[in-house]
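Dear Dr. L.,

I hope this message finds you well. Following up on our conversation about the binding site, I have prepared a predicted three-dimensional model of the protein together with adenosine-5'-diphosphate. For your records, I am including the exact sequence and ligand specification that went into the calculation, followed by the structure tokens. Please feel free to forward this to your student if that is useful.
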Amino acid sequence: MSTHVFYSSEACKLPIYQFKKELIQAVKDNTFLVVTGETGSGKTTQLPQYLYEAGLCKDGKIGVTQPRRVAAITVAQRVSQEMGMKLGEEVGYQVRFDDCTSKNTMIKYMTDGCMLREILADSVLTHYSVVVLDEAHERSLNTDILIGLLKKTMSKKTSHGRTVCLKVVVMSATLETEKLSAFLGHCPVFTIPGRTFPVTEKFLNLIGPKDTERSAYVKEVVKVALDVHTNERAGDILVFLTGQSEIQKACDLLFQKAEVIDYRYDVNDSSVEGLLILPLYGAMPTDQQKQIFQPPPEGIRKCVVATNIAATSLTINGIRYIVDSGFVKQLNHSPRAGMDILEVVPISKSEAQQRAGRAGRTSAGKCFRIYSKDYWEKCMPDYTVPEIQRTSLTAVILTLKCLGVHDVIRFPYLDRPEERLILTALKQLYQYDAIDRRGQVTSLGKLMVEFPLHPGLTRALLKAAALDCEDIMLPVAAMLSVENVFIRPGQPETQKEADQKHRQIASEAGSFNDFVMLLNVFEKCKASDSPSAWCRDHWIHWRAVKSAFSVESQLREILHRLEEQGAVEKEKWDGSRSELFRRCLCLGYFTNVARRSIGKSFSTMDGHGSTVHIHPSSALSGQESQLDWIIFHDVLATSRMFVRTVCPIRYEWVKDLLPKLHEVDVYELSSVAREEVTDEEVAKWESKEALKRQAAESFEDV
Ligand code: ADP
Ligand code: MG
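The resulting structure of the complex is given below.
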């Protein structure tokens, strides 16, 4: 069976098109295949169409994974459009909390996290004929785990004497393909030769190795972009920054500055006008994203200000100039703080080269780096460290355990994480009661994997459900799962107004507490006659709240399904609702407890004693002196370690939970990580624990 696909002249011009036949054959001939080629050569959008046309999905779907949610959605839109089909029919996508597929879906773009969840439900992926793991060079945690899992599954499938029908294609930009092939049993590597044009690279020396004041780089970047616009000949600009707020700030500045230049120099020159400024970041509405790909109107220059998403996931045609800030926002596990911290860090040299390469796709280009050569040599690592070696593995290890992978240390990792990180994850799972002392998944742990949430938050939610008050925790869990709902405008006056409105919501919530504030936004907005107007009036992102509504009902569905199965045991409670709410939160966040120390600072209680401050965006900011114990949702490191989404608690509520943080010695868990634990080992452990618990109880005196 083969289906005819019509390829536009544009699609026929892509480098991949000449290799269509050979590629189809290579996929048919091999269980594993690595495909590599320059970004923009057509791998992501074209290969699935070729396989579809060749009838490769007669036994199941073609699943294509992406590390980034926006990429999955954007690419699915593009491919459905190329194939002249309605999105969600033959071509669809699925990302967390947003499933746009149907029975007819044959090409399914999805995040690697969603694919991992599908494996959890069906380990041999019966409904798929081809799985394409895209953007493998990004080395996202989930893609790395998928590569290991599929390698494991496929070897099992053959050993049972069954014919292997699932095909696995791993796609990567040029880096590291030999390593991937070797890992997958020396499978063939298919290279799509691509033509690139030279890119002149310039170091502008605006940032040097000693520049610790990093917030200034947004201004520098804007200045460079404007210089390019005034001085360089036609061609679009792509600016790399690190995140949404920074990108919005840069876009605001670009608008303003463009006006100032006009005014000051009285320029009638159209080169200063004629700049079409477009932001591009993960949480953007998809209809706005469409504009990014469209060619600018005649005589106008496009300037896209993007996160790293534009480095490999999405290719924008017509880019001739790159302005590189040299920074990226990254989630890193900090062993010193014992937490995952979102921080802005210098990119690697290979990443910088990838960014520069975006200027040379269709003609010669230029890359302007705001940093100096000295900075490049001293501050930028050669390669980016894979996510698996730098972030918390808690959720992934629980998934592996639920898949029956008990020996999580000897799992086939493409790059082995430090044992310490695996053990920390096991320790956390043990603290959340998701695994027992033998490393087996508990009934609570089995419930936890059902929710696409952080295990701690899931635990709080399940407790609330047990106490019949899920109505207050579901909205909070949903609000924490969507992008930031609070708008923080760039201009000082409007900022003041927004702050005031947000404070008002906080005070209406009764108690100053960021979690309750989220609940209040959710409920107020839901009850309003015109939710979008309410949001506009209160400086709240309506789109974010709207998706929280949808997330809430999806979480509710999962919860109801589990309740119907009798999986949630009910408990009784006589305290007040506000206290109950906070106590449920404590169960999920007791690993994130801090106590006030000197001045406005707090000290974490997880044994690391890190100094943290309340983020200015918190409703509790400025009231530190009235606080004693707090829990927090996450940590952001800028000039200081800031905790965000904070809730005041009482020591009694965490008193019984805190010892668990100190109960287990991480190194003793290494035996749990392996398969067998003897009774003696458990006994030895328990006797030691008694001692440790005594030690931990001294906390009460703190
Ligand atoms: P690769 O995966 O090899 O990096 P892609 O398949 O993503 O390449 O891109 C192939 C071409 O399709 C590029 O020229 C890119 O600009 C174009 N393209 C991809 N997505 C879109 C879109 N949403 N709108 C317009 N053009 C797109
Ligand atoms: Mg691609």
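In brief: The chain has 26 helices and 21 strands.

With kind regards,
A. P.
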